[in-house]
Amino acid sequence: MTNVSTMAETPEAYTSATNDFRSDTFTTPTPEMVQAALTASIGDAVYNEDVDTIRLEQQVAQLAGKEAGLFCVSGTLSNQIALRCHLFQPPYSILCDYRAHVYTHEAAGLAILSQAMVVPVIPSNGNYMTLEDIKLHYVPDDGDIHGAPTKVLSLENTLHGIVYPLEELMRIKVWCMDNGIKLHCDGARIWNAVAETSVPLKQFGEIFDSISICLSKSLGAPMGSILVGDFKFIKKCNHFRKQQGGGIRQSGMMCKMASVAVGGNWKEKLRRSHRMAHHLADFCKLHKIPLESPADTNFVFLDLQKAKMNPDVLVKKGLKYQVKLMGGRVSMHYQISEESLERVKQAILEAFQHAQEHPHDVEGPTKIYRSESTEIDIDGNAIGEIQTYKY
Ligand SMILES: Cc1ncc(COP(=O)(O)O)c(C=O)c1O
Ligand SMILES: C[C@@H](O)[C@H](N)C(=O)O
């Protein structure tokens, strides 16, 4: 008798992100977005015949001061095809921050799709790579047959919520041009950088050869990213997108929903989330709860290692105060309520107080995704009925 696998349990329907601090990816579509989808174009985007898809690609490319844009179903796809497209003749390597999503969270796509070596760099200032860090770690294309020359520098702005200083980006850009190295930006939260610094997206477009601009993070669209660059580059990226299964058909509905976010007052939405993050960071400082990095924008990174806080206890305290956490990164977004912010402060404070009596040895910096929540609560009682948060 063949064993019939049991169906995985269906989770309860997700209804609201007002108390969800796990990530800004949990924002839910607004009624306005859903309404917009009902009147979206219905062309086949593989044949470049969907009007709302083309409109959104052109709109975001224009905002970034780039010639063309390409709708991708995810930021991961957008990053991976951009980096592959910048690469020509292996052996080659990509240099990035050791925390970069393209290196840590895209399932070794750089090794598999691009057959690239990655050179992950720990910034000497602890926050962002400077030109000096890059010069120290890049692999020159000098004919030495031992090396895999650096052909692309992939930066993230914001990175872990940290805003990349514009003057540093400009220095890096000039050096990259002098050394024939392409510059890509993982702009999953570039809208946050723009909202916080008032540096126009167009100015980032002048610095980077390509930018992956996510629609599905702080902006609040249900899915997708727009990859922007020059015409020739985007045309080839479209080829790699198709190869990777990203050539989707009637994408108009998703693009029309995203256009509601792009056309809305996203700056104020994001600035509100930044104010909430700054408030939480101040609360942590008041209670001497260490932070891992500056809370420039919408993320507060608790330094669990320095605080000797157990991420499990943090998640359980979150459950106690009806807020969702999954580790040391506390993510704000425009749908977070003021009441939830007050509750998450209590959860964090109690987890920190618990650590005072029960110090926990955390290995290394905060992992930005799950904490392996166990099935028991901090007093050892079963909490089987409460969902634990892990991928
Ligand atoms: C910095 C960063 N880059 C890229 C991505 C990938 O985006 P997606 O989840 O849409 O693939 C994420 C996560 O969502 C991210 O946090
Ligand atoms: C976990 C990671 O892939 C996702 N981008 C997030 O920030 O939540």
From TrEMBL:
Q: In which pathway does it act?
A: Amino-acid degradation; L-threonine degradation via aldolase pathway; acetaldehyde and glycine from L-threonine: step 1/1
Enzyme's top EC category: lyase
Pfam families assigned to the protein according to its UniProt record, in alphabetical order: Beta_elim_lyase (PF01212)
Carries keyword Lyase?
yes
Residues modified as N6-(pyridoxal phosphate)lysine are: K217
UniProt-listed Gene3D superfamilies: Aspartate Aminotransferase, domain 1, Type I PLP-dependent aspartate aminotransferase-like (Major domain)
Q: Name one GO cellular component term.
A: cytosol
Q: Which CDD domains match?
A: TA_like
The answer to whether UniProt assigns keyword Lyase to this entry is: yes
UniProt GO BP: glycine biosynthetic process; L-threonine catabolic process
| Location of the Aromatic amino acid beta-eliminating lyase/threonine aldolase domain | 20-306
Q: Where is this region: Disordered?
A: 1-22
Q: Which reaction does it catalyse?
A: L-allo-threonine = acetaldehyde + glycine; L-threonine = acetaldehyde + glycine
InterPro entries documented for this protein: ArAA_b-elim_lyase/Thr_aldolase (IPR001597), Low_specificity_L-TA-like (IPR023603), PyrdxlP-dep_Trfase (IPR015424), PyrdxlP-dep_Trfase_major (IPR015421), PyrdxlP-dep_Trfase_small (IPR015422)
Q: Which GO terms describe its molecular function?
A: L-allo-threonine aldolase activity
The record's PANTHER family line, in alphabetical order, gives: L-THREONINE ALDOLASE, L-THREONINE ALDOLASE-RELATED
Q: What is this protein called?
A: low-specificity L-threonine aldolase
Species of origin reads: Lachancea dasiensis
Organismal lineage? Eukaryota, Fungi, Dikarya, Ascomycota, Saccharomycotina
